[in-house]
């Protein structure tokens, strides 16, 4: 089956009876929202979907939130969700792109490319009048999944610190997906223990700008291009590493760049949850050029 990075509800509806298509609800809510994504999944989901728990498919030994697991842990978790070498995976969330892109990125990180995001997520699916179901997740068939880790798609704190030493014309450009206020340091962080501000020399593009607020659908390629260029990214030239609060919405920015043809965007997995908590990581406030 041909896989596209972004698929429509119409496409997915036509594929509901295809056993090779694995549908994953990857909804994640910020800790401050007080919502339970798994309970919401059991109350209403796309038929046949299983729950991709970002807070469970992680490195359980790392104190930072939902850091990537090792390849074997990811393989076991994906197989438990019914993903095999012959699968086509479609990820969605209840917002449109907020966390579905995290699951998309994780599959790519571990060498699986037949993975897509549902345009507009559950919100757009329901707006199209398509059915939902409730109750416990359906049983997953058993099968084998091959994985291989792609280190070029992730960055660690040491990589980010080394990049600052490069100065002007550094090895990569950091693009931050948090809100403009959090980037500037004028809004509080959801995690109270973190400093306010951003990684020096980084640029800002709030991930919410990538989707239509009414429908949850991803904006057109032309609109995305305008957004990234307005943020200061030289498309086709800059090497970009995306960052956010805890490595989730950074994947939405990576997804947007993927739609624009940049397939090698890396994500700083620790993001501000790591950078903002340490005392050896420099912080800037304000806006670029401000």
Automatic annotation (TrEMBL):
Tagged with keyword Secreted: no
Gene3D superfamilies to which the protein is assigned, alphabetical: Rhodanese-like domain
Rhodanese domain location: 17-134, 168-284
Subcellular location: Cytoplasm
Record GO cellular component, one term: cytoplasm
Molecular function terms from GO: 3-mercaptopyruvate sulfurtransferase activity; thiosulfate-cyanide sulfurtransferase activity
InterPro entries registered for this protein in UniProt: Rhodanese-like_dom, Rhodanese-like_dom_sf, Thiosulphate_STrfase_CS, TST/MPST-like
Keyword Transferase: yes
Taxonomy, superkingdom: Bacteria
Gene designation: sseA
Reaction it catalyzes: 2-oxo-3-sulfanylpropanoate + [thioredoxin]-dithiol = [thioredoxin]-disulfide + hydrogen sulfide + pyruvate + H(+)
Keywords: Cytoplasm, Repeat, Transferase
Protein name, per record: Sulfurtransferase
